[in-house]
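User: Hi! Is it possible to get a structure for several chains at once, not just one? Here's what I have:
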Amino acid sequence: MSTEIILRYIHFICIFIIVGTLTAEHLLLKKTMTRQEISRLAKIDGLYGMASLLLLAAGLTLWLGSNGKPAVFYNKNWVFHLKLGLFATLGILSIYPTVFFLKKRKGDPAETIPIPGKVFLLLRLELLLLLIIPLVAGLMARGIGYR
Ligand code: HEM
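Assistant: Yes, the chains can be modeled jointly so their relative placement is included. Here is the combined structure:
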């Protein structure tokens, strides 16, 4: 099996984990939650973070590691740069919920905490970006946007 196929496999598995964890977070989120429940969300969010880093590592290696297509195929493709921008936006959007979960999980496990509407909104925006990125990925992989 070639390195490229393994990298692609890792890239896809990470995407599945990211979609799964974000969907789980969204389904578990309630207007008020105990610190114990928030702690569970923080663990799921940690898995999401690790999968994002591994996805980035696999993506960077596919791009710059001379596996498959040459780096210039991606460097000169504005759709690929759009994909990177969307991924960076995804990362930025996830900062507030992550920090919120990490801060609020500490303390009395039975204490109830109100969840700000911003956390719901940001998770939904992240899920929306996850719907768009695969389309952009499919386009750039076929050379659409190459200049
Ligand atoms: C949530 C984020 C991401 C999603 C959903 C995603 C999705 C995908 C998908 C679906 C493909 C396969 C495209 C195809 O063969 O038709 C792909 C390939 C690829 N991705 Fe990603 N990706 C993400 C992040 C990244 C990042 C951050 C990078 C670079 C740092 C990256 C670099 C690549 C490369 C180089 C390929 C190979 C494209 C080719 O076959 O020429 N991806 N990605």
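Strands lie at 32-34, 112-114. Residues 3-141 form one domain.

User: Great, thank you!
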